[in-house]
Amino acid sequence: MLTELMQSLSSDIILGLAQAGAAIVLCLAVVLLCRWFAVHVERETAISLARGLVQMVFVGVVLALLLHGNLLVGVLILLAMMFAAAVTASRRAPAIKDALLLCFYAIAAGAGIVIAGMIATGTLTADIAVLVPVGSMIIANAMNACSQSIERFRSDVAAHVGQVEAGLALGADPAVTVAPYVQSAVYASLLPRLDMLKSLGLVWIPGVMAGMMVSGASPVYAGIYQFVIVAMILAACGITGLVVTLLIRNRAFSPAAQLMLRPGDSRKPVPVPVNAR
User: Fold this and answer.
1) DSSP states of 123-135
2) Most buried among 32, 41, 253, 273, by the most CB within 10 A?
3) What is the pLDDT, as a whole number, of residue 226?
4) Residue 174 has what pLDDT?
């Protein structure tokens, strides 16, 4: 019996690697096509493909080992995912002090509140086989919302330095001078999720619903459950986008109300001298 099981697993792994190889070949063909039009993403694509494959194999091994763990194990896995997501999102804010912590706080607030609410209402169970995959979807979307909020806020402020500094020179509160850019950053983080919710069932049928239907669940219930997950993703992204934008806004100014975000500054903040305003 054990020998048959090992042979079955081995054949599945070989088949999976062959399918992954075909997917990589297709991606590389697209990269070559992009290069023909002077779009150079060869190095980043190669790194992304390698990391993605290795990380997913590692996750599969970990989940296989921890498949029957308790709620505490599941929470620890989700916290590790949140930290990894914060590391990725914080790269969008190299000029912001403690960007990693700010991103972690925002992602933990958005994804953590939503996941805890889903567990409390029974939408999610403590079973790792359900908690981790669904939780990872919420965390991944919160990470994207975090990155989009940071990038939009940083670029908008950098593009309107003159207006912001004019408001500061007239005595306006720093939060007031960047209020329009806070609003646009949060909206930018929500827009993809709003479109995703609008197109749900019309443009795409998500994997959770398809998986539930394959496993024998009622198609109607599977559709309702998928709606709940997408709605919770929207909520998580809204919380994450708002929290990270407000945290970044507080770090965009010095204690003397000097604007720290400068156009073209991608490494460290450069405060504006007081006599230059």
Assistant:
1) SS-S-HHHHHHHH
2) 253
3) 82
4) 86
Q: Which two tokens stand for residue 43?
A: 């190095």
Tell me the pLDDT tens digit for each residue of 74-86: 888 899 999 999 9
Question: What pLDDT does residue 271 have?
Answer: 44
Tokens of 137: 């979807």
Report which of 96, 203, 206, 112 is spatially closest to residue 149, judged by C-alpha positions.
Answer: 96
Question: Are 135 and 236 a contacting pair, CB within 8 Å?
Answer: no
Q: Which residue has the tokens 């290795």?
A: 54
Phi, psi for residue 96 in degrees, rounded to 5: -100, 130
Task: Return left, alpha or beta for 122; rule: phi > 0 is left, psi -120 to 50 is alpha, else beta.
Answer: left
What's the rounded Cα separation, in Å, for the pair 28 and 90?
28
How many angstroms from the chain centroid is the CA of residue 117?
19
- DSSP state for residue 272 in the 8-state scheme: P
Question: From the CB of residue 196, how many other CB atoms can be counted at a distance below 10 Å?
Answer: 17
As a dihedral over the C-alpha atoms of residue 136, residue 183, residue 89, residue 134, rounded to 10 degrees, the angle is: 0
Q: Which amino acid is located at 16 in the chain?
A: G
CA 26 to chain centre: 25
Q: Model's pTM, two decimal places?
A: 0.76
The residues, any chain, with a CB within 8 Å of residue 182's CB and separated by 6 or more, are 153, 245, 246, 249
> Which tens digits make up the pLDDT trace of 156-194?
888 888 888 888 888 888 888 889 999 999 999 999 889
pLDDT over threshold 70, residue 277: no
